[in-house]
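Task card 7
Instruction: Convert sequence to structure tokens.
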Amino acid sequence: METVATPTVVTKTVTVPVPPSITSASTCPGPVNRGTGASAFEGSWRRHASQLVLQRDTATSALMMGASAVDSENWRVDWTHDECDSRKVVVTLLERTALYGTGVDGELDEGKTFGLEFGTSSIGTSVIVTTGLGDDPGVYTWCGADSGPVPECGA
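Output:
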């Protein structure tokens, strides 16, 4: 009689990395009075001579960065954050859509990324703070509509 070998079943566990994504509003808490998760960052943020508009539809998200009354540039941007890290965002410059005067002297380039996170203003309201944008270290304070009259955001 002939012996037949039985096949051996080999199983292998594969871990697939999950890319960062914008979290659903019910998953992560956000700052006081700013919604939850990614929705906390949505909206229009301003600082002296500049505006940052973050929308869930990134086709309408934009940065207008000014250096003076006549020098500024506009950019289309994309933005994401890690799940449950509701206080930090990474913004990527996709395409410059306008240049006025000398812009911001070559400090912005396609593909440049900068960080955003929530902070508290000197009057106790929620603001966002950028790092890596503009002059080194590129720390700028941005105010939303509910931030109030915050001196750090400029005129």
